[in-house]
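Marked as duplicate of an earlier ticket. Keeping the data here for the record.
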Amino acid sequence: MNPSVAELLVNSAKKTPDTIAVRFQGESTTYAALDAGSNKIAHGLMNKSIGRGDHVALYCINSPHFMMSYFGILKAGATVVPINLLLHPEEVQFLLNDSEAKALIYHQVTDKAVVAIKSGLQSVKNFIAIGETSLEEADSFSRMMSEESDDAVLVLPEKKDALAAILYTGGTTGLPKGAMLMHTNLLANAASVAKALKLEGHQDKFLTVLPMFHSFGATVGFLTPISHSATVIAVPQFAPEATCKIIQEEKATVFMGVPTMYAMMANLSKESRYDLSSLRYGVSGGAALPVPVLENFENRHGVPIYEGYGPTECSPVLTVNPIGGKRKIGSVGLPILGVELKIMDDEGKELPVDTVGEVCAKGANIMKGYFKREEESKKSFHGEWFRTGDLGKMDDEHYFYIVDRSKDLIIVHGINVYPRQVEEVIYKHPAVAEAAVIGIPDDFHGELPKAYVALREGYDLKPQDIIKHCRQHLGKFEIPRRVEFLDSLPKSGANKILKRKLREMEIEKKKEMK
Protein backbone atom coordinates (compact mmCIF):
# COMPACT_ATOMS: atom_id res chain seq x y z
CA MET A 1 0.00 0.00 0.00
CA ASN A 2 1.59 3.24 -1.13
CA PRO A 3 1.00 6.25 1.14
CA SER A 4 -1.09 9.30 0.23
CA VAL A 5 -0.83 12.82 1.67
CA ALA A 6 -4.64 12.74 1.94
CA GLU A 7 -4.26 10.19 4.75
CA LEU A 8 -3.12 13.05 7.01
CA LEU A 9 -6.67 14.38 6.97
CA VAL A 10 -8.38 10.96 6.94
CA ASN A 11 -6.48 9.79 10.03
CA SER A 12 -7.05 12.98 12.02
CA ALA A 13 -10.75 12.99 11.11
CA LYS A 14 -11.06 9.44 12.49
CA LYS A 15 -9.24 10.30 15.73
CA THR A 16 -10.69 13.76 16.38
CA PRO A 17 -13.82 14.24 14.24
CA ASP A 18 -15.26 17.04 16.39
CA THR A 19 -12.03 19.02 16.79
CA ILE A 20 -11.94 22.30 14.86
CA ALA A 21 -9.73 21.85 11.79
CA VAL A 22 -10.14 25.34 10.31
CA ARG A 23 -11.17 28.75 11.57
CA PHE A 24 -12.02 31.15 8.75
CA GLN A 25 -13.51 34.61 9.14
CA GLY A 26 -15.16 33.66 12.43
CA GLU A 27 -16.56 30.33 11.19
CA SER A 28 -15.41 26.86 12.28
CA THR A 29 -15.02 23.67 10.24
CA THR A 30 -14.50 20.41 12.13
CA TYR A 31 -12.22 17.60 11.00
CA ALA A 32 -15.27 15.50 10.15
CA ALA A 33 -16.69 18.29 7.97
CA LEU A 34 -13.35 18.99 6.23
CA ASP A 35 -12.94 15.28 5.51
CA ALA A 36 -16.52 14.96 4.20
CA GLY A 37 -16.11 18.06 2.01
CA SER A 38 -12.92 16.70 0.48
CA ASN A 39 -14.74 13.42 -0.27
CA LYS A 40 -17.38 15.38 -2.19
CA ILE A 41 -14.67 17.12 -4.25
CA ALA A 42 -13.01 13.77 -4.95
CA HIS A 43 -16.29 12.21 -6.11
CA GLY A 44 -17.02 15.28 -8.22
CA LEU A 45 -13.65 15.02 -9.97
CA MET A 46 -13.92 11.25 -10.46
CA ASN A 47 -17.36 11.74 -12.03
CA LYS A 48 -15.56 13.95 -14.58
CA SER A 49 -13.15 11.06 -15.28
CA ILE A 50 -10.32 12.76 -13.40
CA GLY A 51 -8.03 10.51 -11.40
CA ARG A 52 -4.59 8.93 -11.38
CA GLY A 53 -2.14 10.63 -13.69
CA ASP A 54 -4.28 13.76 -14.09
CA HIS A 55 -3.28 17.22 -12.88
CA VAL A 56 -5.78 19.60 -11.26
CA ALA A 57 -4.89 23.26 -10.73
CA LEU A 58 -6.02 25.06 -7.57
CA TYR A 59 -6.36 28.85 -7.80
CA CYS A 60 -7.79 29.89 -4.46
CA ILE A 61 -7.38 32.05 -1.36
CA ASN A 62 -6.44 30.62 2.05
CA SER A 63 -9.69 29.07 3.22
CA PRO A 64 -11.43 25.78 4.03
CA HIS A 65 -12.27 25.67 0.29
CA PHE A 66 -8.56 25.52 -0.55
CA MET A 67 -7.94 22.74 1.96
CA MET A 68 -11.00 20.68 0.95
CA SER A 69 -10.02 21.00 -2.70
CA TYR A 70 -6.35 20.14 -2.05
CA PHE A 71 -7.22 16.94 -0.18
CA GLY A 72 -10.10 16.16 -2.56
CA ILE A 73 -7.78 16.29 -5.57
CA LEU A 74 -5.39 13.89 -3.83
CA LYS A 75 -8.21 11.57 -2.71
CA ALA A 76 -9.25 11.25 -6.37
CA GLY A 77 -5.71 10.06 -7.08
CA ALA A 78 -4.82 13.21 -9.04
CA THR A 79 -1.96 15.68 -8.65
CA VAL A 80 -2.56 19.18 -7.28
CA VAL A 81 -1.03 22.23 -9.00
CA PRO A 82 -1.35 25.29 -6.71
CA ILE A 83 -1.41 28.63 -8.57
CA ASN A 84 0.05 31.89 -7.23
CA LEU A 85 -2.77 34.41 -6.82
CA LEU A 86 -0.56 37.39 -7.61
CA LEU A 87 0.61 36.25 -11.03
CA HIS A 88 -0.43 38.10 -14.17
CA PRO A 89 -3.15 36.19 -16.08
CA GLU A 90 -0.66 35.44 -18.88
CA GLU A 91 1.66 33.82 -16.33
CA VAL A 92 -1.24 31.78 -14.96
CA GLN A 93 -2.04 30.64 -18.49
CA PHE A 94 1.56 29.52 -18.94
CA LEU A 95 1.47 27.48 -15.71
CA LEU A 96 -1.83 25.82 -16.56
CA ASN A 97 -0.58 24.83 -20.00
CA ASP A 98 2.89 23.84 -18.84
CA SER A 99 1.50 21.65 -16.03
CA GLU A 100 -0.98 19.99 -18.44
CA ALA A 101 -3.78 20.60 -15.94
CA LYS A 102 -6.99 18.83 -16.91
CA ALA A 103 -9.20 20.77 -14.48
CA LEU A 104 -9.14 24.09 -12.65
CA ILE A 105 -10.73 24.78 -9.26
CA TYR A 106 -10.82 28.53 -8.79
CA HIS A 107 -12.13 31.09 -6.30
CA GLN A 108 -14.40 33.92 -7.38
CA VAL A 109 -11.68 36.52 -6.72
CA THR A 110 -9.77 35.02 -9.68
CA ASP A 111 -12.80 34.92 -12.00
CA LYS A 112 -11.70 37.80 -14.25
CA ALA A 113 -8.27 36.22 -14.77
CA VAL A 114 -9.81 32.83 -15.62
CA VAL A 115 -12.20 34.40 -18.13
CA ALA A 116 -9.31 36.35 -19.71
CA ILE A 117 -7.14 33.28 -20.31
CA LYS A 118 -9.76 30.61 -20.97
CA SER A 119 -9.43 30.69 -24.77
CA GLY A 120 -5.66 30.15 -24.51
CA LEU A 121 -5.85 27.07 -22.30
CA GLN A 122 -4.74 23.88 -24.03
CA SER A 123 -5.57 21.08 -21.58
CA VAL A 124 -8.04 22.47 -19.04
CA LYS A 125 -11.48 21.11 -19.95
CA ASN A 126 -13.19 21.25 -16.55
CA PHE A 127 -13.81 24.38 -14.47
CA ILE A 128 -15.09 24.36 -10.89
CA ALA A 129 -15.93 27.75 -9.39
CA ILE A 130 -15.92 28.58 -5.68
CA GLY A 131 -18.49 31.37 -5.47
CA GLU A 132 -19.81 33.50 -8.33
CA THR A 133 -18.38 33.12 -11.83
CA SER A 134 -18.85 34.49 -15.34
CA LEU A 135 -18.18 31.12 -16.98
CA GLU A 136 -21.45 29.43 -17.93
CA GLU A 137 -19.77 26.05 -18.39
CA ALA A 138 -18.18 26.09 -14.93
CA ASP A 139 -19.42 23.59 -12.37
CA SER A 140 -20.24 24.96 -8.94
CA PHE A 141 -18.33 24.14 -5.76
CA SER A 142 -21.62 24.72 -3.91
CA ARG A 143 -23.37 22.15 -6.12
CA MET A 144 -20.68 19.62 -5.30
CA MET A 145 -21.13 20.29 -1.58
CA SER A 146 -24.91 19.72 -1.83
CA GLU A 147 -25.16 16.94 -4.42
CA GLU A 148 -21.98 14.82 -4.47
CA SER A 149 -21.53 11.86 -2.15
CA ASP A 150 -19.49 12.29 1.01
CA ASP A 151 -18.77 8.57 1.21
CA ALA A 152 -15.16 7.90 2.15
CA VAL A 153 -12.93 7.73 -0.90
CA LEU A 154 -9.17 7.45 -1.19
CA VAL A 155 -7.46 6.40 -4.41
CA LEU A 156 -4.01 5.37 -3.25
CA PRO A 157 -0.98 5.96 -5.49
CA GLU A 158 -0.04 3.11 -7.82
CA LYS A 159 3.65 3.50 -7.06
CA LYS A 160 5.75 4.64 -4.15
CA ASP A 161 7.13 7.72 -5.91
CA ALA A 162 3.75 8.92 -7.21
CA LEU A 163 3.38 12.63 -7.85
CA ALA A 164 1.35 14.56 -5.24
CA ALA A 165 1.96 18.19 -6.22
CA ILE A 166 3.68 20.35 -8.80
CA LEU A 167 4.83 23.59 -7.21
CA TYR A 168 6.17 26.24 -9.51
CA THR A 169 9.24 28.15 -8.45
CA GLY A 170 9.31 31.90 -8.90
CA GLY A 171 11.14 31.94 -12.21
CA THR A 172 13.82 34.37 -11.04
CA THR A 173 15.91 33.14 -13.95
CA GLY A 174 14.03 32.20 -17.09
CA LEU A 175 10.58 30.64 -17.06
CA PRO A 176 9.03 29.15 -13.89
CA LYS A 177 9.81 25.48 -13.28
CA GLY A 178 7.43 22.97 -11.72
CA ALA A 179 9.05 21.12 -8.83
CA MET A 180 7.63 17.59 -8.72
CA LEU A 181 6.91 16.66 -5.09
CA MET A 182 5.98 13.07 -4.36
CA HIS A 183 3.57 11.91 -1.67
CA THR A 184 6.59 10.47 0.14
CA ASN A 185 8.41 13.84 -0.07
CA LEU A 186 5.58 15.80 1.54
CA LEU A 187 4.80 13.14 4.16
CA ALA A 188 8.44 12.91 5.20
CA ASN A 189 8.76 16.68 5.51
CA ALA A 190 5.50 17.13 7.41
CA ALA A 191 6.51 14.43 9.91
CA SER A 192 9.95 15.97 10.45
CA VAL A 193 8.52 19.49 10.77
CA ALA A 194 6.00 18.32 13.38
CA LYS A 195 8.85 16.93 15.50
CA ALA A 196 11.00 20.03 15.00
CA LEU A 197 8.16 22.39 15.99
CA LYS A 198 7.25 20.27 19.05
CA LEU A 199 3.55 20.28 18.20
CA GLU A 200 1.07 19.94 21.05
CA GLY A 201 -1.72 18.29 19.04
CA HIS A 202 -5.22 19.74 19.04
CA GLN A 203 -4.15 22.43 21.54
CA ASP A 204 -2.11 24.20 18.84
CA LYS A 205 -3.61 26.88 16.61
CA PHE A 206 -1.61 27.77 13.50
CA LEU A 207 -2.15 31.27 12.14
CA THR A 208 -1.71 30.62 8.40
CA VAL A 209 -1.54 33.86 6.47
CA LEU A 210 1.32 32.59 4.33
CA PRO A 211 -0.28 31.60 1.01
CA MET A 212 -1.32 27.97 0.93
CA PHE A 213 -0.23 27.87 -2.73
CA HIS A 214 3.33 28.43 -1.46
CA SER A 215 5.43 25.50 -0.22
CA PHE A 216 6.06 27.05 3.22
CA GLY A 217 2.37 27.88 3.65
CA ALA A 218 1.32 24.41 2.47
CA THR A 219 3.65 22.10 4.39
CA VAL A 220 4.06 24.11 7.59
CA GLY A 221 0.81 26.07 7.36
CA PHE A 222 -1.70 23.26 6.93
CA LEU A 223 -0.30 19.80 6.14
CA THR A 224 1.72 19.62 9.37
CA PRO A 225 -1.01 20.93 11.71
CA ILE A 226 -3.64 18.72 10.01
CA SER A 227 -1.40 15.71 10.65
CA HIS A 228 -1.61 16.43 14.42
CA SER A 229 -5.28 17.46 14.72
CA ALA A 230 -4.30 21.08 15.32
CA THR A 231 -6.43 24.04 14.23
CA VAL A 232 -5.54 26.11 11.16
CA ILE A 233 -6.63 29.75 11.33
CA ALA A 234 -6.81 30.53 7.62
CA VAL A 235 -6.24 34.20 6.72
CA PRO A 236 -6.52 35.13 3.02
CA GLN A 237 -4.37 38.26 3.01
CA PHE A 238 -1.63 39.72 5.18
CA ALA A 239 -2.10 43.10 6.80
CA PRO A 240 0.05 43.72 9.89
CA GLU A 241 -2.61 45.24 12.15
CA ALA A 242 -5.37 42.83 11.10
CA THR A 243 -3.03 39.84 11.56
CA CYS A 244 -2.11 40.93 15.09
CA LYS A 245 -5.81 41.37 15.88
CA ILE A 246 -6.62 37.84 14.66
CA ILE A 247 -3.76 36.35 16.70
CA GLN A 248 -5.13 38.11 19.78
CA GLU A 249 -8.79 37.17 19.19
CA GLU A 250 -8.19 33.55 18.12
CA LYS A 251 -5.41 32.99 20.64
CA ALA A 252 -3.11 31.50 18.01
CA THR A 253 -0.16 29.52 19.36
CA VAL A 254 2.07 29.34 16.26
CA PHE A 255 2.70 32.05 13.67
CA MET A 256 4.64 31.56 10.45
CA GLY A 257 5.89 34.47 8.41
CA VAL A 258 8.51 35.80 6.06
CA PRO A 259 10.84 38.60 7.23
CA THR A 260 8.78 41.43 5.70
CA MET A 261 5.77 40.33 7.76
CA TYR A 262 7.76 40.43 11.00
CA ALA A 263 9.20 43.82 10.03
CA MET A 264 5.75 45.30 9.40
CA MET A 265 4.31 43.85 12.62
CA ALA A 266 7.25 45.28 14.57
CA ASN A 267 6.82 48.70 12.94
CA LEU A 268 3.16 49.22 13.86
CA SER A 269 2.41 52.62 15.38
CA LYS A 270 2.72 52.97 19.16
CA GLU A 271 -1.06 53.36 19.36
CA SER A 272 -1.52 49.84 17.96
CA ARG A 273 -1.43 47.61 21.02
CA TYR A 274 -2.12 43.90 20.64
CA ASP A 275 -1.63 41.00 22.99
CA LEU A 276 0.30 38.25 21.19
CA SER A 277 1.15 36.35 24.38
CA SER A 278 -0.81 33.28 23.21
CA LEU A 279 1.95 32.60 20.67
CA ARG A 280 4.46 29.99 21.75
CA TYR A 281 6.78 31.22 19.02
CA GLY A 282 7.02 32.53 15.49
CA VAL A 283 8.77 30.74 12.63
CA SER A 284 10.53 32.72 9.91
CA GLY A 285 11.48 31.37 6.51
CA GLY A 286 11.25 32.10 2.80
CA ALA A 287 14.11 34.62 2.91
CA ALA A 288 16.97 35.62 5.19
CA LEU A 289 15.75 37.23 8.43
CA PRO A 290 17.74 40.40 9.18
CA VAL A 291 18.85 40.39 12.82
CA PRO A 292 17.47 43.92 13.47
CA VAL A 293 14.03 42.75 12.29
CA LEU A 294 14.12 39.79 14.71
CA GLU A 295 15.20 42.04 17.58
CA ASN A 296 12.60 44.71 16.84
CA PHE A 297 9.77 42.15 16.70
CA GLU A 298 10.83 40.35 19.87
CA ASN A 299 11.28 43.62 21.78
CA ARG A 300 7.87 44.86 20.62
CA HIS A 301 5.80 41.69 21.06
CA GLY A 302 7.77 39.47 23.44
CA VAL A 303 7.49 36.42 21.15
CA PRO A 304 10.63 34.47 20.12
CA ILE A 305 11.27 33.88 16.42
CA TYR A 306 12.94 30.68 15.27
CA GLU A 307 14.47 31.04 11.84
CA GLY A 308 14.39 28.11 9.44
CA TYR A 309 15.25 27.48 5.83
CA GLY A 310 14.33 25.44 2.79
CA PRO A 311 13.52 25.86 -0.91
CA THR A 312 10.35 24.67 -2.67
CA GLU A 313 12.22 21.72 -4.17
CA CYS A 314 12.79 20.32 -0.67
CA SER A 315 9.10 20.21 0.32
CA PRO A 316 10.42 22.75 1.64
CA VAL A 317 11.93 22.62 5.14
CA LEU A 318 15.60 21.71 5.61
CA THR A 319 16.56 23.42 8.87
CA VAL A 320 15.21 25.31 11.86
CA ASN A 321 16.68 26.62 15.08
CA PRO A 322 15.73 24.08 17.78
CA ILE A 323 12.51 25.12 19.53
CA GLY A 324 13.35 25.67 23.19
CA GLY A 325 16.96 24.69 22.50
CA LYS A 326 20.10 26.58 21.56
CA ARG A 327 19.08 29.34 19.17
CA LYS A 328 21.78 31.07 17.16
CA ILE A 329 20.50 34.42 15.93
CA GLY A 330 21.54 34.93 12.32
CA SER A 331 21.62 31.17 11.75
CA VAL A 332 18.90 29.10 10.06
CA GLY A 333 19.54 26.38 12.63
CA LEU A 334 20.17 22.65 12.43
CA PRO A 335 19.02 20.15 9.78
CA ILE A 336 15.65 18.64 10.74
CA LEU A 337 15.21 14.89 11.19
CA GLY A 338 15.85 12.93 7.97
CA VAL A 339 17.74 15.75 6.23
CA GLU A 340 21.45 15.81 5.44
CA LEU A 341 23.17 19.06 4.48
CA LYS A 342 26.63 19.82 3.15
CA ILE A 343 28.43 22.88 1.87
CA MET A 344 29.93 22.06 -1.54
CA ASP A 345 31.98 23.73 -4.25
CA ASP A 346 30.93 23.87 -7.91
CA GLU A 347 32.29 20.37 -8.53
CA GLY A 348 30.37 18.80 -5.66
CA LYS A 349 33.32 18.56 -3.27
CA GLU A 350 32.49 19.05 0.42
CA LEU A 351 33.99 22.22 1.93
CA PRO A 352 35.36 22.60 5.48
CA VAL A 353 33.66 24.34 8.43
CA ASP A 354 33.13 28.12 8.11
CA THR A 355 33.82 28.08 4.36
CA VAL A 356 31.23 29.65 2.05
CA GLY A 357 29.91 27.39 -0.69
CA GLU A 358 26.64 26.07 -2.09
CA VAL A 359 24.15 24.49 0.32
CA CYS A 360 23.35 20.97 -0.90
CA ALA A 361 20.71 18.66 0.59
CA LYS A 362 19.80 14.98 0.67
CA GLY A 363 16.75 13.29 2.18
CA ALA A 364 13.33 11.75 1.60
CA ASN A 365 11.88 15.24 1.19
CA ILE A 366 13.86 16.16 -1.96
CA MET A 367 11.87 16.55 -5.19
CA LYS A 368 12.06 14.07 -8.02
CA GLY A 369 12.94 16.84 -10.48
CA TYR A 370 11.33 19.58 -12.56
CA PHE A 371 8.27 18.69 -14.64
CA LYS A 372 9.25 18.17 -18.31
CA ARG A 373 12.70 19.70 -17.73
CA GLU A 374 15.18 16.85 -17.66
CA GLU A 375 18.29 18.89 -18.38
CA GLU A 376 17.54 21.47 -15.70
CA SER A 377 16.73 18.65 -13.30
CA LYS A 378 20.13 17.01 -13.92
CA LYS A 379 21.95 20.32 -13.39
CA SER A 380 20.22 20.71 -10.03
CA PHE A 381 21.94 17.68 -8.51
CA HIS A 382 25.44 16.55 -7.56
CA GLY A 383 24.59 12.83 -7.63
CA GLU A 384 22.00 12.41 -4.85
CA TRP A 385 22.62 15.90 -3.48
CA PHE A 386 20.22 18.67 -4.48
CA ARG A 387 21.91 21.98 -5.27
CA THR A 388 19.85 24.72 -3.62
CA GLY A 389 21.58 27.60 -5.39
CA ASP A 390 22.05 29.24 -1.99
CA LEU A 391 25.44 30.25 -0.67
CA GLY A 392 26.01 29.33 2.95
CA LYS A 393 28.37 27.96 5.54
CA MET A 394 28.27 25.59 8.51
CA ASP A 395 29.85 26.22 11.92
CA ASP A 396 31.55 23.67 14.17
CA GLU A 397 28.22 22.82 15.86
CA HIS A 398 26.53 22.05 12.52
CA TYR A 399 24.39 25.20 12.54
CA PHE A 400 23.91 26.56 9.03
CA TYR A 401 24.05 30.15 7.84
CA ILE A 402 22.67 31.40 4.53
CA VAL A 403 24.94 34.06 3.11
CA ASP A 404 22.98 34.75 -0.08
CA ARG A 405 21.52 33.35 -3.27
CA SER A 406 24.36 32.47 -5.66
CA LYS A 407 22.71 34.55 -8.39
CA ASP A 408 22.43 37.54 -6.03
CA LEU A 409 26.16 37.63 -5.41
CA ILE A 410 27.72 40.97 -6.44
CA ILE A 411 31.31 40.95 -7.69
CA VAL A 412 33.07 44.30 -7.35
CA HIS A 413 36.57 44.33 -8.89
CA GLY A 414 36.72 40.56 -8.38
CA ILE A 415 35.73 40.82 -4.71
CA ASN A 416 32.57 39.02 -3.53
CA VAL A 417 29.96 41.27 -1.96
CA TYR A 418 27.03 39.51 -0.28
CA PRO A 419 23.86 41.65 -0.47
CA ARG A 420 22.49 40.14 2.73
CA GLN A 421 25.39 41.57 4.76
CA VAL A 422 24.76 45.02 3.33
CA GLU A 423 21.02 44.72 3.95
CA GLU A 424 21.64 43.72 7.59
CA VAL A 425 23.50 46.99 8.09
CA ILE A 426 20.86 49.10 6.35
CA TYR A 427 18.12 47.55 8.50
CA LYS A 428 19.95 48.80 11.60
CA HIS A 429 19.06 52.38 10.63
CA PRO A 430 16.00 53.36 12.71
CA ALA A 431 14.26 54.95 9.69
CA VAL A 432 14.37 51.82 7.51
CA ALA A 433 11.31 49.59 7.06
CA GLU A 434 12.51 47.51 4.09
CA ALA A 435 15.77 47.15 2.20
CA ALA A 436 17.13 45.18 -0.73
CA VAL A 437 20.53 45.38 -2.41
CA ILE A 438 21.24 44.34 -5.99
CA GLY A 439 24.25 44.55 -8.28
CA ILE A 440 24.18 47.02 -11.16
CA PRO A 441 26.62 46.83 -14.09
CA ASP A 442 29.59 49.18 -14.04
CA ASP A 443 32.19 49.51 -16.82
CA PHE A 444 35.08 50.05 -14.42
CA HIS A 445 34.18 47.92 -11.37
CA GLY A 446 32.21 45.17 -13.12
CA GLU A 447 29.32 45.61 -10.70
CA LEU A 448 28.38 48.02 -7.91
CA PRO A 449 25.89 47.59 -5.05
CA LYS A 450 22.67 49.59 -5.25
CA ALA A 451 20.22 49.78 -2.35
CA TYR A 452 16.47 50.07 -2.64
CA VAL A 453 14.95 51.32 0.60
CA ALA A 454 11.42 51.90 1.96
CA LEU A 455 11.26 54.18 5.00
CA ARG A 456 9.14 53.90 8.11
CA GLU A 457 6.28 56.34 8.43
CA GLY A 458 7.31 59.81 9.59
CA TYR A 459 10.93 59.64 8.35
CA ASP A 460 12.53 61.58 5.51
CA LEU A 461 16.06 60.66 4.44
CA LYS A 462 18.37 61.43 1.56
CA PRO A 463 20.44 58.74 -0.22
CA GLN A 464 23.58 60.14 1.40
CA ASP A 465 22.16 59.36 4.86
CA ILE A 466 22.02 55.63 4.04
CA ILE A 467 25.47 55.68 2.43
CA LYS A 468 26.93 57.47 5.47
CA HIS A 469 25.34 54.88 7.77
CA CYS A 470 26.85 52.05 5.69
CA ARG A 471 30.32 53.62 5.80
CA GLN A 472 30.32 53.16 9.57
CA HIS A 473 29.85 49.39 9.30
CA LEU A 474 30.99 48.13 5.89
CA GLY A 475 34.13 47.77 3.82
CA LYS A 476 34.67 50.15 0.92
CA PHE A 477 33.55 47.68 -1.75
CA GLU A 478 30.34 46.78 0.12
CA ILE A 479 28.98 50.32 0.44
CA PRO A 480 26.06 51.01 -1.92
CA ARG A 481 27.06 53.61 -4.49
CA ARG A 482 23.45 54.44 -5.19
CA VAL A 483 20.32 54.46 -3.05
CA GLU A 484 16.75 54.70 -4.32
CA PHE A 485 13.72 55.19 -2.09
CA LEU A 486 10.39 53.48 -2.82
CA ASP A 487 7.11 53.61 -0.92
CA SER A 488 7.34 49.83 -0.63
CA LEU A 489 9.49 47.16 -2.26
CA PRO A 490 7.96 44.74 -4.80
CA LYS A 491 6.93 41.43 -3.25
CA SER A 492 5.83 37.95 -4.27
CA GLY A 493 2.56 36.31 -3.30
CA ALA A 494 4.36 35.05 -0.18
CA ASN A 495 5.48 38.59 0.70
CA LYS A 496 9.12 37.93 -0.19
CA ILE A 497 10.96 40.92 -1.62
CA LEU A 498 11.45 40.38 -5.36
CA LYS A 499 14.93 41.38 -6.42
CA ARG A 500 14.04 40.21 -9.90
CA LYS A 501 11.58 43.10 -10.16
CA LEU A 502 14.21 45.55 -8.96
CA ARG A 503 16.61 44.32 -11.63
CA GLU A 504 13.87 44.71 -14.24
CA MET A 505 13.34 48.28 -13.05
CA GLU A 506 17.04 48.96 -13.60
CA ILE A 507 16.87 47.55 -17.14
CA GLU A 508 13.88 49.77 -17.94
CA LYS A 509 15.70 52.86 -16.64
CA LYS A 510 18.66 52.09 -18.90
CA LYS A 511 16.35 51.76 -21.91
CA GLU A 512 14.74 55.11 -21.11
CA MET A 513 18.17 56.78 -20.82
CA LYS A 514 19.07 55.56 -24.32
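See parent ticket for discussion. The longest helix spans residues 31-46.
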